[in-house]
Amino acid sequence: MTAGSDTRVGDLEAYLATPSTPGPWPGLVLVHEAFGLDDNMRAHADRLAAAGYLTLAPDLLSRGRRVACLAATFAALRRGGGTAFDDIEAARRRLLEDSRCTGRVGVVGFCLGGSFALVLAGRPGWDAAVVNYGALPSSPEVLDEACPVVASYGGRDRSLRGVADRLDGALRERGVPRDVREYPAAGHSFLNPEPSVPWFLAPISRFVLHAGPEPESAEHAWHRIDGFLAEHLGA
Q: Per-residue pLDDT averaged across 135-161, rounded?
C-alpha cells in the first residue's frame, strides 16, 4: 500500500503520495483539474505512487477564495507565467530536495493541469510530461525544446476536438519523443475513477465535454502512461 499524507508546499495545501517499495524514486508533480485537489486527484497520486513515483500534488486553489484562485490560475496559464507556475516550480524543487527522490522529476496534469503540463514540457528541469486532456498552448513554439510527452484525449470531448492530432504533429515536427492517443469512446476527465462535475456544469458536461469515467479507455491510457514513465523517468 502507498502512504499518502497531507502536506504543504509553501503556503499551499498539498498531498504527498509515497511508494511502498524501497527508494529512492523518481518524482512527479501532479497538477489538478479545475476543481482543485479533490478525491479523484488524490486517487491518481496514490496510483502513481503505487507505480513507484514520489508524487506531490499542490492545491493551486488553496491560498484564498477558490473562485479568485481559479481565475488567477487560468490567467497565469494564458500569460505563461505567474504565481501558479511559481507554485508548481516550488513543488518540483521540494521533490528534488527530498533525499528519497532520484533527481528525475516529471509533471502530470489533468484538464487545467494538462494544459500546464504542456507548457512546462518545453521548460528546463522536467524529464517527462503526462498530459491528460490539456489544451494546446497558444504558441506551439513553447514545445521547441520539450521533454518527452505522453498525452491522452477523449474523442467525445468537443472542447478539445482535433487537439490530439495537432499536438502529435507539433511534437513530431520538433522530434520530441511522444505517445499521443485519442480514445473514441471517452470524453473529458475519462481517467477519473469517480464523476466530479458539479451540478451547475451538468449541461456543459453532458453536451460538450461528455465528462466522466470511461474504464476501458482509462485502463489502456494508464498502461501507456506507465510504460512511458518507466522509459523516461525509471521506477
A: 96
